[in-house]
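Let's sit down with a protein and look at its sequence and fold side by side. Once you have written the record down, we can walk along the chain together.
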Amino acid sequence: MRPDTPAENVDHTAEAARLERTADRYPEDAEALLLQAAAHLELADARPAATALYDRLLSTPDTLENAPLVRALKASNLWEYDHEAEARAIIDGIRTTAPRDPAPWVIVAESLESHDELEAAHDTFTEAATLLLTDVAEPPYATHPVLFGRHRVRRMLGLPHDDWDALADTLHSSPISLDELHDPKRVWSLGSDNPEELEAEISRLRAELGTYREALSRPFPVAVLHWPATELTELLSAYPDLATEYPSHPEHLATIESSLRELSTSGTPNLGIVTATVPSYEAFAASEGSSPADTTLLPQYATTLAARGRAVAWPPQRTSDCWCGQTQPYDACHGS
């Protein structure tokens, strides 16, 4: 399914089946593909089938890149078709294990929030913020929903602003403030006969929709292909014709950074890097009925990996490890 396909034109059951077949062809990407398939099943209201996919993934937890995320999605799905006790047990387990990825925290907190468990949702968001953002100079993009969700729940509980709320306000880029977007009284204005109140609410909804669209667009970035040193050596040994594309590994890394900076300067949003492997690339070439030595396959391979959720956002945080794999921070490596 293309990212711009209207939701009403999607056969979610058929799309889930297609993704499952693709996962069988590309087992290295099965986790991302099956999570997308489960999401389509949830949209099709086939929630038991979605749970079966989550259970399929969790049957081999050691092979998962993000087992807490799968558990969180399973808990949220279970609660939607009256398996509340099991969902609560999974949520409690996630809070106990305290994953370092913000996504599971956001999913379970929003699940609690959607079922009017506002105090528990607030506690969950607060635990996540304390764990992930204490002594962090610049909150990573992935942690923003933690702060925004916490702000929203506190507004609904009528709690005063604190330091985390102030930080959320500084990270919020919409022209409509968080206090307005999260105002519990907003829903009252939808029944108003005052044109000015209705117009103000429409403006707020448009701003909120823009924020959602920006977040949804990030998993499908413009991606650049990165070959680790060992993979590039293996690639060039098997397909020496590609040496014209990759004269040396240091030059390859420098080209990645310069290309991304050029794209960023031109205004291209949502840039990312996908890491390539020779077996995956050879499998992709075979599926396209072409030779891996064909240079025109390289950008197609990068786009395919990005569409499967394999891209890492660029640029990294200045103090985070550099994308090239070195242990030094980005601002001391390729970000210097």
Observations:
- Residues 195-217 form the longest helix (23 residues).
- Confidence is low (pLDDT under 50) at residues 1-7.
- The CA atoms of residues 286 and 304 lie 14 Å apart.
- The beta strands are 222-226, 271-275, 312-313.
